Amino acid sequence: MEENREAGRAAGPRRLPLLMPTLMIALTVVTGVVEAVSLLALGPVFTAMQTGNVLFLAFGAARVGNLPALAAAVSLAAFVLGVVCGARLEALTEARGKRWFITGLIVESGLIVAAAAAGWGLVPHYGSPTDRHLTVSAILALAMGLRNTTILRANLPGVPTTLVTRSMTAFLGGAAMGRGNVFGFGTSRWALRGLSVLAMFAGGFLGALLVRAGWTVNWLLLPTAAVVLVVGLSYRAEPRLHTDQTSGREGPA
Description:
The protein has helices spanning about 1-40, 50-60, 70-95, 100-120, 130-155, 165-175, 190-210, 215-235. With about 250 residues, it is mostly helical. The chain has a single domain (about 20-235), classed as Growth Hormone, Chain: A, CATH 1.20.1250. Helix 1 runs parallel beside helix 7 and helix 6 packs across helix 7 (about 190-210). The longest helix has about 40 residues, at about 1-40. It is globular and about 45 Å long.
């Protein structure tokens, strides 16, 4: 019996490296779908990749390009609120010895459901967003701000789930330099970076096809909420995340 307990303890840590990358890739696909909905059905506006919104605001301030600065400002403000609330909730949850990763994803799923409810029956529309379009994009940005806090706690290098620029750079840099380089060419982490780029593409491609097919906003978002919830529940039996990570520090991508 003692040997069985030892075997169980040894098996526990090994499951985490196999499970977490799969969950992070699934969340990256979700981000691609959400950004397709935000950009093509609600905007143009980003809800996860806030670099785009910062540039939209810059172009709008310069009065060049006729881009909708209001939608970008609303999304950016909601994203900031999501990050701040996520950080506070994370601290409270971890202080009680609970797993923020699970709680964060459950809350994110609920926010996406709320966005779907706000956009129930709303037909995708690109350009000149209405108040309902702005409301849905704000709720999604709030959810994505929360997601970024959640992923920082997960601290899985190479799969930030809401952007792929660094992952793509490390993946292509490793391929160009070959083995023995700082990008870890040929390792599982290097492969994971490539998968994260493909996952973002797949999510964006799927979301764009569904928008083109004329799906209303609620049906575009409800499946993504379900995926996020499943990801959170899939992690519930795993060991609690380490709480000794430096707050706000991101692992190497």
